[in-house]
Amino acid sequence: MQRLFLWAWKGGNNDYWKHLVGLEKRKTALSDHLCDLFAAWSKSFVGVLPDFERLYESWEILGSLTHLERAEKDELDAALAEEPRNGWIWCPVGRSGWHSEMRRRILEESLNDATKREILEAGFAKGDEEFLQKAGENYRRLASRIEW
């Protein structure tokens, strides 16, 4: 899972990606670049999607929740017991950190009963509904630290 997000790699600091033209002032330079790049590339094999940005950010959020699977439930409990501003376990956040409206829509949809069941059956969150809820709360807390 660490390989999925380049900025989670040792030495993969987001600031390196700010050297790309037009990304100098972006909070999530690599994520923004990849979203734009994949949106352009995907037209040839996915077709035109009404909201590719939502698809990309959904992928990032699911990937981030998967990254949290390295933690045990008691570690999440301990982090979430802390004051919300500091009570979280790090995971890669990506564009939805600053794109709060999209983050809220995706998390609400992902954690509703029908979608949640599919996510758990697919093996996310160790197949554990309680872990998924806690990972979602952890993600919200961490992402809210960088929203606009």
From TrEMBL:
| Official protein name in the record | Uncharacterized protein
Q: Which organism is it from?
A: Tropicimonas aquimaris
